[in-house]
TrEMBL record:
It comes from Dyadobacter subterraneus. This is Xanthine dehydrogenase family protein molybdopterin-binding subunit. InterPro entries: Ald_Oxase/Xan_DH_a/b, Ald_Oxase/Xan_DH_a/b_sf, Ald_Oxase/xanthine_DH-like, AldOxase/xan_DH_MoCoBD1, AldOxase/xan_DH_MoCoBD2, AldOxase/xan_DH_Mopterin-bd_sf. It holds the Pfam family Ald_Xan_dh_C. Residues 21-135 form the Aldehyde oxidase/xanthine dehydrogenase a/b hammerhead domain.
Length: 745
């Protein structure tokens, strides 16, 4: 281990300069001579059949190369087999251009390929379509009668079903002296990363492809393309060099990938397909959700009965679910519980995981109901959480691998100044504005999944590490370099981490907040194996000073192996490689979580958010003037990039509570605000003082790094803390998200 550890240091993003100076190339920036451009035509009906597509005018334009529709698409292996990607829910994945059936508004129905993007887009506007429309339904509110329970399926392995009922909820709730209940609605949200979804497919000849894709999983897309188009996996290379945000939108291969590859294979040309902003609303999204809660407590504040039920939307072809109702009993140790998740299939595309899927929705309902309970009990909301604090996960009857949530509550409250809060609603003012303080708890699962990594010592004594993982802007490159450097005792400058290429060792999709734990563990395993190998090679050298020395007796320090007892006894990595006939020393390792050990514990990151709002009741305007989020997420590898993750999550929380919603006009089954002008997100003027605390949390169980992941936990507690602060300010409990100004007037 290094004497100068970089883990725990606030290292700036290694690729930061390349990104801000524009030299980092994104998937839509790989240009080749003769590159062709595709533009997708989307359906303008919700459900029915295409009777005919007229492409005559579009084809007549000089420079238009081809127009693909279901009528003339190449016959592809896809249509002979069922293939599901790594994030596919149970069901049949959507197949672009499969036949003339329309399943949802905005469904891709044709691809125009032309010599320029502008020409392709203009030609697409000349394509006319005759449809036979059928009746449809897109409104979850009027279809609750069609709700059904999700089928169990392999793809839901990362999405556990709701915990089984315990005790007797009905009786316990009926007999509770204090009760709180709520009905909650969350609108649809689209991920809207700034970078549009683009694929540039380079046709390398004989069915060989190099694909630059915006994705959260290079291997996921490689397997998709191989399976769908019947290609050998080794002939398909997917590279995702930089990713301008994704938030879950890139967890599944998107249809621009299909279109770009189809056209490249058929035309034997290089083809780029880019979705425009409006088309970013024609695939996955966070589903609208209806929830109900009923919590019962004793007069001392002990919560004894928990009921949480959710209805989430899905498509007719896939059973998409979210983990919405599993969290209440993970947080609060009631013995009488009832949890249910229902799916409502509609004439829509399948939803898709979006940052803290399920958790950010469910915890809002839970934490606002707890807030309501605190007023009924006349117990401070923070105190109520402490009264119901549990070191165990009662929903699974097992302990947490670690849980420093209490420290999040205490340190967050201290930093925020929670004790200055007057418990009475509408009691605090600043000028003509009402001031409210609200708090809430956050929780997110700490997962680790299998992955591989390669580690090499070069003849210059430098370390090369690689994994197919992407970096969706979270700081993966930087953090992995830190982990690798520490494992070999090197300075970060002597380490190169290569990533974002399906040719590299296997990595799963980058999501679920599990990338640092997963790829970090693989790199640690590869680094450890490499140390052993280096040491063995060192000991095998003629006259080696390490002949009868055990690996425990040496240190790896700045490119040398040194004897702990006597640091002047050493061999450099360069000397070891030279003695290896100049051949670099290499290992590749597969790291798999220890399931037998892990299943004895629940593993989760926790947080507590404290929020101050100012509400102008004349205008209905809410300002989040201050917020503190305290996070317990195990070992924080890089406090700088981690803080950025939490800040991003907090801003997302402000967005979720107050801004973001994709509005559907159910008469047309169509989203009405498919642009960033009308799809509201917070701007600089909406963001004030945000503070992040990482509390100390040691976890020797969760994985070797002791890291729990921080991509999603920053979001979870914020929306309920905001809603609770609004209640404290105004006395109005608004459970419909986002909270619009008219509900405050
Ligand atoms: Mo995250 S929604 O798993 O990218």
């Amino acid at each position: 281990m290094s004497n100068r550890p970089s883990i725990g240091q606030p290292i700036s993003r290694l690729e930061g300069q390349m990104k801000v100076t524009g030299s980092a190339k994104y998937s839509g920036e790989y240009n080749t001579p003769g590159l062709l451009y595709g533009y997708v035509v989307n359906s303008t009906i919700v459900r029915g059949e295409i009777v005919s597509i007229n492409t005559v005018d579009a084809r007549a334009l000089p420079g238009v190369i081809e127009i693909f529709t279901h009528d003339n698409r190449p016959s592809l292996a896809w249509f002979n087999m069922q293939y599901a990607d790594m994030d596919a829910p149970p069901g049949s994945p959507f197949r672009p251009l499969h036949d003339n059936e329309i399943k949802y508004y905005g469904q891709p129905i044709a691809l125009v390929v032309a010599e320029t993007f502008e020409l392709a887009r203009f030609a697409a506007s000349l394509v006319t379509v005759e449809y036979e429309e059928e009746t449809f339904s897109t409104d979850i509110h009027v279809n609750l009668g069609k709700a059904r329970a999700p089928k169990a399926g392999l793809a839901t392995a990362l999405k556990p079903p709701p915990p089984k009922p315990k005790g007797d909820f009905e009786e316990a709730y009926a007999n509770s002296p204090v009760q709180a209940s709520g009905e909650f609605f969350h609108g649809t949200e689209h991920h809207n990363p700034l970078e549009l979804f683009t694929t540039t497919t380079i046709y390398e000849g004989e069915g060989k492809l190099t694909i630059y894709d915006k994705t959260q999983g290079t291997v996921n897309c490689q397997l998709y393309v191989g399976n769908v188009f019947g290609l050998h996996f080794k002939d398909v290379r997917v590279i995702s060099p930089y990713v301008g945000g994704a938030f879950g939108a890139g967890l599944r291969p998107q249809y621009q990938l299909f279109m770009s590859v189809m056209a490249a294979l058929e035309l034997k040309r290089n083809v780029r397909v880019t979705l425009d902003r409006s088309q970013m609303f024609t695939f996955g999204y966070r589903p609208p959700t209806i929830q109900t809660t009923q919590f019962g407590a004793n007069t001392d504040g002990t919560v004894t009965a928990l009921n949480h039920e959710a209805f989430g939307q899905t498509s007719h072809f896939e059973d998409y679910t979210e983990v919405v109702v599993n969290w209440a009993n993970m947080l609060y140790p009631a013995q009488n519980t009832l949890f249910k998740y229902n799916m409502v299939p509609l004439d829509v595309f399948s939803p898709l995981d979006m940052r803290a899927p399920g958790g950010s929705t469910g915890v809002h309902a839970i934490e606002s109901t707890m807030d309501d309970l605190s007023y009924k009990l006349k117990i401070d909301p923070l105190q109520l959480r402490l009264i119901n604090y549990s070191v165990d996960d009662v929903s699974m009857d097992r302990p947490y691998s670690s849980k420093e949530l209490r420290q999040c509550y205490l340190q967050g409250a201290e930093k925020f100044g929670w004790s200055n809060r007057n418990p009475e609603p509408r009691s605090m003012r600043k000028g003509n504005k009402l001031v409210g303080y609200g708090m809430a708890t956050g929780i997110w699962e700490a997962m680790t999944v299998p992955a591989r990594a390669e580690a090499i010592i070069t003849k210059e004594g430098k370390l090369l590490v690689s994994s197919a993982v992407t970096d969706i802007g979270t700081g993966t490159l930087t953090v992995m370099t830190q982990i690798a450097a520490d494992e070999l005792g090197l300075k970060m400058d002597d380490v190169t981490f290569s990533y974002g290429d399906s040719k590299m060792p296997f990595a799963p999709i980058q999501g679920g907040s599990f990338t640092v734990s997963t790829i970090g563990s693989a790199i640690k395993a590869a680094g450890k194996a490499l140390r052993k190998k280096l040491f063995k090679k060192a000991a095998d050298i003629d006259n080696s000073p390490f002949k009868n020395v055990a690996i425990e007796d040496v240190d790896f320090d700045n490119g040398n192996i040194i004897l702990k007892q006597n640091p002047s006894v050493s061999l450099s990595f360069q000397e070891i490689v030279a003695a290896n006939k100049g051949k670099q020393i290499r290992t590749i390792n597969f790291s798999v979580p220890n399931v037998l050990k892990l299943k004895k514990y629940s593993r989760a990151a926790h947080s507590a958010a404290f929020v101050e709002v100012e509400v102008d009741e004349e205008l209905g305007i809410v300002n989040v003037t201050r917020a503190v989020t305290a996070v317990a997420a195990g070992n924080i590898i890089n406090p700088k990039t981690a803080r950025s993750q939490i800040l991003g999550g907090m801003i997302w929380g402000i967005s979720k509570a107050l801004r973001e919603e994709t509005i559907t006009d159910h008469h047309f089954g169509k989203y009405m605000n498919t642009n960033l002008g009308e799809y509201h997100i917070p701007v600089h003027a909406d963001i004030h003082e945000l503070d992040v605390i990482f509390v100390d949390e040691k976890d020797e169980i969760v994985n070797e790094l002791g890291s729990k992941g921080i991509g999603e936990i920053g979001l979870v507690a914020m929306p309920p803390a905001i809603a609770n602060a609004i209640f404290h300010a105004t006395g109005k409990r608004i459970n419909q998200f986002p909270i619009h100004f008219d509900s405050l007037l």
